[in-house]
Amino acid sequence: MSAHPIQNHGHTAQHSIPEPIALRAYEVYCALFGEQPAMIDPKRGYRGGFSVGEIIAFLYARSFPREEWRMRVDEALEREP
Questions:
Q1: Nearest C-alpha neighbor of 47 from the set 68, 73, 29
Q2: CB 77 within 8 A of CB 43
Q3: How do the pLDDT tens digits run along the chain, 81 residues long?
Q4: Which structural domain, as residue segments, surrounds residue 57?
Q5: What separation in angstroms does the CA of 45 have from each of 26, 29, 38, 42?
Q6: How many CA atoms lie within 13 A of 28 on its CB side?
């Protein structure tokens, strides 16, 4: 199983998440912001991946009906420290 990077904001340790989780988060990202293949394609360098807060927000939103995704992502990101 492939892994996708997580932005580490200057920490030296590299972190990653399993591909199925990254693709679920990416599904919500695409619905809100449009496709960005570099976010999930290793041949395009992953563009740094999602931050932990983004992953949480996108996966949280995905648990709701699609028409609520924008509101739920915004809700989750507002609470991010």
A1: 29
A2: no
A3: 577 777 766 655 567 888 899 899 999 999 999 998 877 776 766 566 788 889 999 999 999 999 999 999 999 999 755
A4: 16-78
A5: 15, 18, 6, 5
A6: 26
List the structure tokens of 5.
């990077």
Question: Is there a domain that residue 69 lies in?
Answer: yes
| Position 16, amino acid | S
pTM to 2 decimals? 0.80
How far is Cα 44 from Cα 26, in angstroms, rounded to an integer?
15
The count of structural domains within the chain is: 1
| Structural contact between residues 61 and 72, judged by C-beta atoms closer than 8 angstroms | yes
